[in-house]
């Protein structure tokens, strides 16, 4: 009830923007809780933020959920289109026009708590363990840059979180996640926060947060409208309330670990 009351008050505070006749297609993927499908609807933290930005801007935005590779391809081919939640990397910088940042969190590695001997002090230590991730995910580019080899240091899967079953069985040492995404990952494998613990924070120049990546030929007017609306929403929308709505597990803080690892838990969001 508290959430809905706050959202009602927020909606009444928004400027009323009439439709400008502009229509764009926004692609996204299954990446809970940022964006996902539920009962034939596309929902999620960043879905709500982006669609509110469209509404405030007076832009007609159609949502389409596709596998990541196909969504990326369509965004590059279709002028009036965009893709979220997209990592803004140096390699992608000139290929899109960018709106954001949207909501994101710090990237962390997690292990099964029973794996007592697994300790990581630097990215070089990652070469001694096995990791699972989705094929063509941003982290595959990061791993390649860190000279981690597919099939030796990490395995790739066709869909997000397919690696969770092997991780649960102890056949993969590490998974990648964040304080925001971890709950959905664990739920998929029937695990809880008490089964895992963070071991390392991954920092890399390619990890700059989640954005709405728009076709490089789209009208700059549309991009500027959406950016202004995103900025407006950040100043007025209680994003933490939206985050709370989508996280399936209660707050979990690993107090026994270094202060640095606390950002790997506890619903730490950035926007």
Automatic annotation (TrEMBL):
<dbReference type="InterPro" id="IPR001638">
    <property type="entry name" value="Solute-binding_3/MltF_N"/>
</dbReference>
<feature type="domain" description="Solute-binding protein family 3/N-terminal">
    <location>
        <begin position="23"/>
        <end position="250"/>
    </location>
</feature>
<protein>
    <submittedName>
        <fullName>ABC-type amino acid transport/signal transduction system, periplasmic component/domain protein</fullName>
    </submittedName>
</protein>
<dbReference type="Pfam" id="PF00497">
    <property type="entry name" value="SBP_bac_3"/>
</dbReference>
């Amino acid at each position: 009830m508290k959430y809905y009351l706050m959202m009602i008050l927020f909606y009444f505070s928004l400027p009323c923007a009439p439709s400008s006749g502009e229509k764009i297609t926004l692609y996204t993927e299954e990446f809970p809780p940022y964006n996902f499908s539920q009962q034939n609807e596309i929902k999620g933290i960043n879905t709500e933020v982006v669609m509110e930005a469209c509404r405030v801007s007076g832009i007609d935005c159609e949502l389409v959920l596709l596998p990541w590779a196909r969504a990326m391809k369509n965004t590059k081919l279709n002028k009036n289109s965009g893709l979220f939640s997209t990592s803004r990397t140096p390699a992608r910088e000139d290929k899109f026009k960018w709106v954001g940042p949207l909501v994101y969190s710090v990237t962390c590695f997690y292990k099964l708590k029973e794996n007592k001997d697994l300790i990581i002090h630097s990215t070089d230590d990652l070469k001694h363990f096995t990791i699972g991730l989705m094929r063509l995910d941003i982290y595959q580019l990061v791993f390649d840059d860190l000279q981690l080899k597919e099939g030796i240091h990490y395995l790739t899967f066709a869909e997000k979180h397919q690696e969770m079953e092997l991780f649960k069985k102890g056949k993969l040492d590490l998974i990648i996640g964040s304080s925001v995404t971890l709950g959905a990952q664990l739920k998929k494998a029937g695990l809880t926060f008490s089964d895992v613990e963070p071991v390392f924070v991954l920092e890399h120049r390619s990890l700059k947060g989640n954005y709405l990546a728009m076709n490089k030929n789209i009208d700059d007017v549309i991009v500027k409208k959406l950016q202004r609306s995103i900025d407006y929403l950040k100043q007025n929308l209680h994003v933490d309330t939206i985050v709370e709505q989508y996280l399936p597990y209660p707050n979990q803080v690993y107090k026994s670990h270094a202060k640095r690892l606390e950002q790997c838990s506890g619903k730490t969001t950035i926007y």
